[in-house]
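pinned: reference chain
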Amino acid sequence: MPTPSASPWWRPENHADRRPFLLVRNRIKAAFRAWFEAQDFLEVETAALQVSPGNEAHLHAFETAALTLSGESAPLYLHTSPEFSCKKLLAAGERRIFDFGKVWRNRERGALHHPEFTMLEWYRVGAPYQALMDDCAALLALAAETAGTRAFRFRGFACDPFAAPERVTVAQAFDRHASVDLLASIADDGTTDRDALAAAARAAGVRVADDDTWADVFSRVIVEKVEPNLGIGRATILCEYPVAEAALARPKPGDPRVAERFELYACGVELANAFGELTDPAEQRRRFEAEMDEKARVYGERYPLDEDFLAALEIMPQASGSALGFDRLVMLAAGASRIDQVLWTPVADVEPSPGGG
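pinned: its C-alpha coordinates
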Protein backbone atom coordinates (compact mmCIF):
# COMPACT_ATOMS: atom_id res chain seq x y z
CA MET A 1 0.00 0.00 0.00
CA PRO A 2 1.53 3.38 -0.97
CA THR A 3 2.61 5.75 1.77
CA PRO A 4 0.18 8.70 2.05
CA SER A 5 1.67 11.90 0.65
CA ALA A 6 1.76 15.15 2.62
CA SER A 7 -1.41 17.18 2.55
CA PRO A 8 -1.18 19.54 -0.47
CA TRP A 9 -0.61 23.27 -0.12
CA TRP A 10 -4.08 24.04 -1.51
CA ARG A 11 -5.91 22.41 1.38
CA PRO A 12 -7.69 25.29 3.16
CA GLU A 13 -6.03 24.58 6.50
CA ASN A 14 -2.58 24.57 4.89
CA HIS A 15 -3.26 27.74 2.96
CA ALA A 16 -4.44 29.41 6.16
CA ASP A 17 -1.05 28.64 7.75
CA ARG A 18 0.86 29.98 4.74
CA ARG A 19 -1.27 33.03 4.01
CA PRO A 20 0.38 35.41 6.53
CA PHE A 21 3.75 34.77 4.88
CA LEU A 22 2.25 35.39 1.43
CA LEU A 23 0.73 38.69 2.50
CA VAL A 24 4.13 39.79 3.80
CA ARG A 25 5.57 38.82 0.42
CA ASN A 26 3.11 41.08 -1.37
CA ARG A 27 3.81 44.00 0.95
CA ILE A 28 7.58 43.68 0.52
CA LYS A 29 7.26 43.49 -3.27
CA ALA A 30 5.13 46.65 -3.30
CA ALA A 31 7.59 48.45 -1.01
CA PHE A 32 10.54 47.44 -3.19
CA ARG A 33 8.79 48.63 -6.35
CA ALA A 34 8.14 52.00 -4.73
CA TRP A 35 11.78 52.21 -3.56
CA PHE A 36 13.17 51.57 -7.04
CA GLU A 37 10.71 53.87 -8.76
CA ALA A 38 11.57 56.68 -6.32
CA GLN A 39 15.16 56.39 -7.60
CA ASP A 40 14.12 56.61 -11.26
CA PHE A 41 14.46 52.90 -11.99
CA LEU A 42 12.30 51.46 -14.75
CA GLU A 43 10.69 48.06 -14.20
CA VAL A 44 11.24 45.68 -17.12
CA GLU A 45 9.92 42.22 -17.97
CA THR A 46 12.38 39.87 -19.65
CA ALA A 47 11.49 36.82 -21.71
CA ALA A 48 11.86 33.50 -19.91
CA LEU A 49 12.63 31.49 -23.06
CA GLN A 50 16.21 31.98 -24.26
CA VAL A 51 18.67 30.37 -26.66
CA SER A 52 21.01 29.92 -23.68
CA PRO A 53 19.91 29.51 -20.06
CA GLY A 54 23.23 30.84 -18.74
CA ASN A 55 26.71 29.39 -18.80
CA GLU A 56 27.69 28.40 -15.27
CA ALA A 57 29.07 24.91 -14.91
CA HIS A 58 26.96 23.86 -11.94
CA LEU A 59 23.63 25.44 -12.87
CA HIS A 60 21.14 23.09 -14.54
CA ALA A 61 18.41 24.36 -16.84
CA PHE A 62 14.98 23.24 -18.01
CA GLU A 63 15.06 22.55 -21.75
CA THR A 64 12.20 22.76 -24.21
CA ALA A 65 11.82 23.14 -27.97
CA ALA A 66 10.38 25.77 -30.27
CA LEU A 67 8.50 24.48 -33.33
CA THR A 68 8.41 26.38 -36.60
CA LEU A 69 5.24 26.57 -38.68
CA SER A 70 6.58 23.64 -40.70
CA GLY A 71 7.13 21.60 -37.53
CA GLU A 72 10.91 21.84 -37.36
CA SER A 73 12.33 21.93 -33.85
CA ALA A 74 14.95 24.16 -32.25
CA PRO A 75 16.04 23.99 -28.59
CA LEU A 76 15.15 26.76 -26.14
CA TYR A 77 15.70 26.99 -22.40
CA LEU A 78 13.99 28.58 -19.42
CA HIS A 79 16.54 31.09 -18.19
CA THR A 80 18.34 30.62 -14.88
CA SER A 81 18.63 34.42 -14.55
CA PRO A 82 17.32 37.46 -16.46
CA GLU A 83 20.89 38.77 -16.59
CA PHE A 84 21.58 38.39 -20.31
CA SER A 85 18.33 40.13 -21.26
CA CYS A 86 18.82 42.93 -18.76
CA LYS A 87 22.29 43.68 -20.10
CA LYS A 88 20.95 43.76 -23.65
CA LEU A 89 18.55 46.46 -22.44
CA LEU A 90 21.52 48.40 -21.04
CA ALA A 91 23.17 48.11 -24.44
CA ALA A 92 19.92 49.38 -25.97
CA GLY A 93 20.13 52.54 -23.88
CA GLU A 94 18.35 51.93 -20.57
CA ARG A 95 20.26 53.26 -17.57
CA ARG A 96 18.46 52.10 -14.40
CA ILE A 97 16.29 48.99 -14.57
CA PHE A 98 14.90 46.34 -12.26
CA ASP A 99 13.08 43.07 -12.89
CA PHE A 100 11.14 40.76 -10.58
CA GLY A 101 11.96 37.84 -12.88
CA LYS A 102 10.72 34.30 -12.61
CA VAL A 103 13.68 31.96 -13.13
CA TRP A 104 14.13 28.21 -13.27
CA ARG A 105 16.92 25.93 -12.05
CA ASN A 106 16.83 22.16 -12.32
CA ARG A 107 18.19 19.73 -9.71
CA GLU A 108 17.39 22.24 -6.95
CA ARG A 109 14.90 21.57 -4.14
CA GLY A 110 15.10 22.09 -0.39
CA ALA A 111 14.46 24.54 2.42
CA LEU A 112 16.35 27.26 0.52
CA HIS A 113 15.95 26.02 -3.06
CA HIS A 114 12.99 25.69 -5.43
CA PRO A 115 12.94 24.83 -9.14
CA GLU A 116 11.00 28.02 -9.93
CA PHE A 117 11.68 31.18 -7.94
CA THR A 118 11.83 34.96 -8.19
CA MET A 119 15.07 36.79 -8.86
CA LEU A 120 15.09 40.52 -8.25
CA GLU A 121 17.75 42.00 -10.53
CA TRP A 122 18.69 45.65 -10.83
CA TYR A 123 21.33 47.56 -12.77
CA ARG A 124 22.90 51.02 -12.50
CA VAL A 125 24.77 52.39 -15.52
CA GLY A 126 27.84 54.42 -14.59
CA ALA A 127 27.74 53.45 -10.90
CA PRO A 128 30.50 51.63 -8.99
CA TYR A 129 29.62 48.26 -7.57
CA GLN A 130 29.93 49.68 -4.05
CA ALA A 131 26.64 51.52 -4.80
CA LEU A 132 24.96 48.10 -4.91
CA MET A 133 26.29 47.34 -1.43
CA ASP A 134 24.37 50.40 -0.22
CA ASP A 135 21.30 49.24 -2.17
CA CYS A 136 21.44 45.82 -0.50
CA ALA A 137 21.66 47.36 2.96
CA ALA A 138 18.68 49.60 2.21
CA LEU A 139 16.58 46.71 0.88
CA LEU A 140 17.30 44.52 3.91
CA ALA A 141 16.10 47.29 6.21
CA LEU A 142 13.07 48.00 4.04
CA ALA A 143 12.06 44.32 3.99
CA ALA A 144 12.29 44.12 7.78
CA GLU A 145 10.42 47.38 8.30
CA THR A 146 7.66 46.31 5.93
CA ALA A 147 7.34 42.91 7.61
CA GLY A 148 7.31 44.51 11.07
CA THR A 149 10.32 42.61 12.39
CA ARG A 150 13.45 43.80 14.18
CA ALA A 151 15.56 40.70 13.50
CA PHE A 152 15.96 37.96 10.92
CA ARG A 153 16.21 34.45 12.39
CA PHE A 154 17.04 31.18 10.66
CA ARG A 155 18.27 27.83 12.00
CA GLY A 156 19.30 29.30 15.34
CA PHE A 157 21.08 32.34 13.89
CA ALA A 158 19.97 35.97 14.20
CA CYS A 159 20.79 39.03 12.11
CA ASP A 160 19.95 42.70 12.62
CA PRO A 161 18.70 43.92 9.21
CA PHE A 162 19.02 47.56 10.28
CA ALA A 163 22.71 47.36 11.16
CA ALA A 164 25.27 48.35 8.53
CA PRO A 165 26.56 45.14 6.90
CA GLU A 166 30.17 44.20 7.55
CA ARG A 167 32.33 44.21 4.44
CA VAL A 168 34.93 41.46 4.29
CA THR A 169 36.98 40.24 1.34
CA VAL A 170 37.01 36.57 0.40
CA ALA A 171 40.72 36.43 1.27
CA GLN A 172 40.02 37.89 4.72
CA ALA A 173 37.20 35.39 5.27
CA PHE A 174 39.42 32.45 4.30
CA ASP A 175 42.07 33.62 6.75
CA ARG A 176 39.58 34.37 9.54
CA HIS A 177 37.47 31.21 9.33
CA ALA A 178 39.82 28.60 7.86
CA SER A 179 43.37 29.96 8.40
CA VAL A 180 43.89 29.63 4.64
CA ASP A 181 46.00 32.13 2.69
CA LEU A 182 43.84 32.22 -0.42
CA LEU A 183 45.87 34.75 -2.39
CA ALA A 184 48.99 32.59 -2.02
CA SER A 185 47.33 30.23 -4.50
CA ILE A 186 46.61 32.97 -7.07
CA ALA A 187 49.29 34.43 -9.36
CA ASP A 188 49.41 38.07 -10.40
CA ASP A 189 47.78 37.20 -13.73
CA GLY A 190 44.88 35.45 -11.97
CA THR A 191 45.96 31.88 -12.67
CA THR A 192 45.55 29.46 -9.78
CA ASP A 193 47.72 26.91 -8.00
CA ARG A 194 45.53 23.92 -7.19
CA ASP A 195 48.11 22.08 -5.07
CA ALA A 196 48.84 25.10 -2.88
CA LEU A 197 45.16 25.63 -2.08
CA ALA A 198 44.57 21.90 -1.59
CA ALA A 199 47.41 21.67 0.95
CA ALA A 200 46.08 24.65 2.90
CA ALA A 201 42.54 23.28 2.83
CA ARG A 202 43.66 19.88 4.12
CA ALA A 203 45.51 21.61 6.95
CA ALA A 204 42.21 23.32 7.81
CA GLY A 205 40.44 19.97 8.02
CA VAL A 206 38.69 20.16 4.66
CA ARG A 207 38.51 16.93 2.66
CA VAL A 208 40.19 17.19 -0.73
CA ALA A 209 39.89 14.49 -3.40
CA ASP A 210 42.72 13.72 -5.78
CA ASP A 211 40.71 14.85 -8.80
CA ASP A 212 39.41 18.08 -7.21
CA THR A 213 40.21 21.22 -9.18
CA TRP A 214 41.20 24.54 -7.60
CA ALA A 215 37.57 25.64 -8.03
CA ASP A 216 36.32 22.50 -6.25
CA VAL A 217 38.58 23.14 -3.27
CA PHE A 218 37.66 26.83 -3.19
CA SER A 219 33.96 25.95 -3.15
CA ARG A 220 34.37 23.38 -0.39
CA VAL A 221 36.19 25.84 1.89
CA ILE A 222 33.49 28.44 1.24
CA VAL A 223 30.66 26.02 2.05
CA GLU A 224 32.23 24.26 5.04
CA LYS A 225 34.26 26.99 6.73
CA VAL A 226 33.16 30.42 5.54
CA GLU A 227 29.42 30.56 4.80
CA PRO A 228 28.22 29.27 8.20
CA ASN A 229 29.91 32.30 9.80
CA LEU A 230 28.47 34.99 7.53
CA GLY A 231 25.59 37.30 8.34
CA ILE A 232 25.57 36.44 12.04
CA GLY A 233 24.53 39.41 14.17
CA ARG A 234 24.50 41.66 11.13
CA ALA A 235 24.60 41.10 7.38
CA THR A 236 27.88 40.32 5.64
CA ILE A 237 29.01 41.56 2.24
CA LEU A 238 31.64 39.08 1.02
CA CYS A 239 33.58 40.86 -1.71
CA GLU A 240 36.59 40.66 -4.03
CA TYR A 241 36.14 37.12 -5.29
CA PRO A 242 39.16 35.56 -7.03
CA VAL A 243 39.08 36.41 -10.73
CA ALA A 244 38.85 32.66 -11.43
CA GLU A 245 35.43 32.87 -9.71
CA ALA A 246 34.45 36.19 -11.30
CA ALA A 247 31.59 34.83 -13.47
CA LEU A 248 30.44 38.00 -15.28
CA ALA A 249 32.36 40.50 -13.12
CA ARG A 250 35.27 42.68 -14.22
CA PRO A 251 38.71 42.47 -12.56
CA LYS A 252 39.37 44.91 -9.73
CA PRO A 253 41.47 47.88 -10.86
CA GLY A 254 44.92 47.58 -9.35
CA ASP A 255 44.66 43.91 -8.41
CA PRO A 256 43.96 41.51 -11.30
CA ARG A 257 43.90 38.56 -8.88
CA VAL A 258 40.39 39.50 -7.73
CA ALA A 259 37.16 40.74 -9.27
CA GLU A 260 34.45 43.28 -8.52
CA ARG A 261 32.02 40.68 -7.23
CA PHE A 262 30.27 40.45 -3.88
CA GLU A 263 27.65 38.26 -2.24
CA LEU A 264 25.26 39.30 0.54
CA TYR A 265 24.59 36.99 3.50
CA ALA A 266 22.19 37.07 6.44
CA CYS A 267 21.91 34.27 9.03
CA GLY A 268 24.35 32.20 6.96
CA VAL A 269 21.99 32.42 3.96
CA GLU A 270 23.23 33.77 0.62
CA LEU A 271 20.80 36.44 -0.54
CA ALA A 272 22.44 38.36 -3.40
CA ASN A 273 25.23 38.18 -5.94
CA ALA A 274 26.49 41.42 -7.51
CA PHE A 275 29.05 42.48 -10.11
CA GLY A 276 30.88 45.42 -11.47
CA GLU A 277 29.91 44.19 -14.92
CA LEU A 278 32.41 42.80 -17.39
CA THR A 279 32.01 44.42 -20.83
CA ASP A 280 34.87 42.66 -22.66
CA PRO A 281 33.18 40.19 -25.03
CA ALA A 282 36.37 38.26 -25.77
CA GLU A 283 37.08 37.68 -22.07
CA GLN A 284 33.44 36.81 -21.41
CA ARG A 285 33.49 34.27 -24.24
CA ARG A 286 36.67 32.73 -22.81
CA ARG A 287 35.03 32.39 -19.39
CA PHE A 288 31.84 30.92 -20.81
CA GLU A 289 33.75 28.34 -22.83
CA ALA A 290 35.81 27.36 -19.80
CA GLU A 291 32.61 26.95 -17.74
CA MET A 292 31.02 24.81 -20.43
CA ASP A 293 34.17 22.68 -20.69
CA GLU A 294 33.90 22.06 -16.95
CA LYS A 295 30.19 21.29 -17.25
CA ALA A 296 30.95 18.76 -19.97
CA ARG A 297 33.68 17.20 -17.81
CA VAL A 298 31.47 16.86 -14.72
CA TYR A 299 27.96 16.34 -16.15
CA GLY A 300 28.52 15.34 -19.78
CA GLU A 301 26.51 18.25 -21.22
CA ARG A 302 26.97 21.86 -22.28
CA TYR A 303 24.72 24.79 -23.15
CA PRO A 304 25.06 27.02 -26.20
CA LEU A 305 26.44 30.53 -25.94
CA ASP A 306 24.13 33.50 -26.52
CA GLU A 307 25.92 35.20 -29.40
CA ASP A 308 23.50 38.14 -29.22
CA PHE A 309 24.55 38.73 -25.63
CA LEU A 310 28.26 38.66 -26.48
CA ALA A 311 27.62 41.11 -29.34
CA ALA A 312 25.65 43.40 -27.00
CA LEU A 313 28.59 43.55 -24.58
CA GLU A 314 30.56 45.43 -27.24
CA ILE A 315 28.26 48.46 -26.87
CA MET A 316 27.07 47.97 -23.29
CA PRO A 317 28.11 50.90 -21.06
CA GLN A 318 29.98 50.48 -17.80
CA ALA A 319 27.46 49.34 -15.18
CA SER A 320 26.96 47.44 -11.95
CA GLY A 321 24.22 44.92 -11.31
CA SER A 322 22.85 42.70 -8.58
CA ALA A 323 20.68 39.59 -8.41
CA LEU A 324 18.78 39.03 -5.15
CA GLY A 325 16.87 35.89 -4.22
CA PHE A 326 13.58 37.58 -3.42
CA ASP A 327 11.92 34.49 -1.91
CA ARG A 328 14.82 33.91 0.49
CA LEU A 329 14.67 37.49 1.72
CA VAL A 330 10.92 37.20 2.23
CA MET A 331 11.54 33.98 4.21
CA LEU A 332 13.84 35.77 6.63
CA ALA A 333 11.67 38.85 6.94
CA ALA A 334 8.46 36.87 7.46
CA GLY A 335 9.97 34.27 9.80
CA ALA A 336 9.32 31.31 7.50
CA SER A 337 11.49 28.18 7.71
CA ARG A 338 11.14 26.91 4.11
CA ILE A 339 11.04 28.66 0.76
CA ASP A 340 7.81 26.96 -0.31
CA GLN A 341 6.01 28.73 2.56
CA VAL A 342 6.46 32.09 0.80
CA LEU A 343 5.51 30.91 -2.72
CA TRP A 344 1.86 31.37 -3.69
CA THR A 345 1.78 28.11 -5.68
CA PRO A 346 4.78 25.82 -5.11
CA VAL A 347 5.89 23.51 -7.91
CA ALA A 348 4.78 19.89 -7.54
CA ASP A 349 7.39 17.71 -5.84
CA VAL A 350 7.83 15.08 -8.55
CA GLU A 351 8.93 11.52 -7.87
CA PRO A 352 11.03 9.33 -10.20
CA SER A 353 8.95 7.07 -12.38
CA PRO A 354 9.01 3.31 -11.59
CA GLY A 355 12.21 1.70 -12.74
CA GLY A 356 14.11 4.97 -12.63
CA GLY A 357 12.95 5.97 -16.13
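why pinned: The mean pLDDT is 95. The longest helix spans residues 12-38.
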